Amino acid sequence: MDMRSRVNDALKTAMKNKDAERLSTLRLICAAIKDRDIAMRGSDDERELTDDDILAILGKMVKQRQESARAYEEGGRLELAEKELSEIEVIEDFLPKQLSKDETDVAVEKAITNVGADSIRDMGKVMGELKAEYTGRMDFGKVGPMVKEKLG
C-alpha cells in the first residue's frame, strides 16, 4: 500500500474512533502532502508524488516539531512541547525504522565506496547516494558531518 493510502486509511480510522489528537496530526500530514501536490502542478517537474517524496515531507515535519518542542521546553511551555512530541509519535508511525548508529556507519562507508569518493569534493555525490537509498531512515543533518569527517 502506498504512503498516501496509508495516511488516508489512518485518517478514516481516527475519525471512526473519535481520536481527536491523532486526527488533528493526520490532517496536518494530509495538508502538507496536498501543499506539495499543488506546488508540483505549477513546476516544470509535473508528476505524482512518490512515496519517497512523502517520506521526505514526513521527515521534515518531524524535524520541525523537534525544533519547536526544544524551543517550547527552553521557554518553559511544557504543555506545548508535549503536544509537539505527541505529533511526532503519530508522524513516525508512517516512517520506516531509523537506522542505528552502526547501520548508519556501514551505509556511509558503502556509499563512499559506491561513488568512489576520495575527497571532500565528492561529498555531494555521497549524500545523493545516501538520500536515494535511505530517505526517511536516517537524519541527513547528522550524517553530513559523518561523511565530511570520513572524507576529510
Can you walk through the features of this model?
By secondary structure, the protein is an all-alpha fold. The chain has helices spanning 3-17, 20-41, 51-74, 78-92, 101-115, 123-134, 140-151. Helix 1 (3-17) packs antiparallel against helix 2 (20-41), helix 2 (20-41) crosses helix 3 (51-74) and helix 3 packs antiparallel against helix 4 (78-92). The mean pLDDT is 89.
Summarize the structure.
The protein has 152 residues and is mainly α. The protein is built from seven helices and no strands. The chain folds into two domains: 3-92, Hypothetical Protein Yqey, Chain: A, domain1 (Orthogonal Bundle); 101-151, Arc Repressor Mutant, subunit A (Orthogonal Bundle).
Main features:
Arc Repressor Mutant, subunit A; globular; Hypothetical Protein Yqey, Chain: A, domain1; mainly alpha; 2 domains; 152 residues
